[in-house]
Design a protein that fits this description.
binds NADPH dihydro-nicotinamide-adenine-dinucleotide phosphate, alpha/beta, 15% strand, 7 strands
Length: 246
């Protein structure tokens, strides 16, 4: 389904990004996989992806840095020749009530989640525009759609991603490039493993399907959005949250 396509996935060493990488590999995409510092985990994703017979290379790149992202995108383009799919998945949380939230914690979350997404799109935009084809998938969150106490930084960044997604969809539509967002609810990864027992239990009670989602379930949705079956979908935000935000 993604045979002969090249996908760039950020935050692909763990969790949802890794699941997306392996799902894309299973359906034939070659992969440029970006991670922050966890080299061992990134190399493991590469090895697992290669078992599907695709090309996969890991790139250490801090998505917060405009210049580092530019250099990495240049490196990817010279290694693969072109890019069809960009998945902006790298993200962090630094939760706490706004009353005591530090400037650093606000900036860090905004820089990683929102500016990182901007940086990646900014440097692949000219390439996709010239090629007159491409798909961008941004990982937002239900926190960005409805707000979440204790996540002023994170929900602002994730809401920003929604605005960015719709703008990019409008700007690049005439070049046959689509841009959509996925808004997951609670998904079982390192990020949610940090939640206290009490918070996790309270979350489960609010989810109509009464369980957390799996990274592989988000990956299936990303694979659909990246496929030719979704070429008429752009500027959309799709929740995958077990009904949390109904
Ligand atoms: P994880 O904490 O499991 O993984 C985060 C990934 O992002 C890692 O690969 C990490 O790399 C990478 N990363 C972090 N900072 C940077 C950076 N500055 N530059 C490049 N890469 C970076 O997260 P999840 O899989 O849980 O989350 C993935 C995305 O999904 C995030 O955007 C998150 O906000 C979103 N999301 C997650 C939900 C959940 O319940 N899990 C719910 C809603 C949205 P490294 O391993 O090298 O540190």
């Amino acid at each position: 389904m993604l045979k002969n396509k090249v996908a760039v996935i950020t935050g692909a060493s763990r969790g949802i990004g890794k699941a997306i990488a392996l799902e894309f590999a299973a359906i034939g995409a070659d992969l440029a996989l970006i991670y922050a510092g966890n080299r061992e985990a990134a190399e493991q994703t590469v090895e697992q992806a290669q078992l599907f017979g695709v090309r996969a290379i890991a790139y250490r790149c801090d998505v917060r840095s405009f210049q580092t992202v530019k250099a990495t995108v240049d490196e990817i383009l010279s290694a693969f020749g072109f890019v069809d799919i960009l998945v902006n998945n790298a993200g962090i949380t630094r939760d706490g009530l706004l009353l005591s939230m530090s400037e650093e914690s606000f900036d860090d979350v905004m820089d990683t989640n929102l500016k990182g997404t901007f940086n990646m799109i900014r440097h692949l935009y000219p390439h996709m525009m010239k090629r007159r084809s491409g798909t961008i998938i941004n990982i937002s969150s239900v926190s960005g759609l409805r707000g979440n106490a204790g996540q002023a930084n994170y929900s602002s960044a994730k809401a920003g991603i929604v605005g960015l997604t719709k703008t990019v969809a409008r700007e690049l539509a005439s070049r046959n490039v689509t841009c959509n967002a996925i808004a997951p609810g609670y998904i079982e990864t390192d990020m949610t493993a940090k939640l206290s027992e009490k918070t996790a239990q309270a979350a489960l009670e609010m989810i109509p399907l009464k369980r957390m989602g799996k990274p592989e379930e988000v990956a299936k949705l990303a694979a659909f959005l990246a496929s030719d079956s979704a070429r008429y979908i752009t500027g959309e935000v799709i929740r995958i949250d077990g009904g949390l935000c109904i």
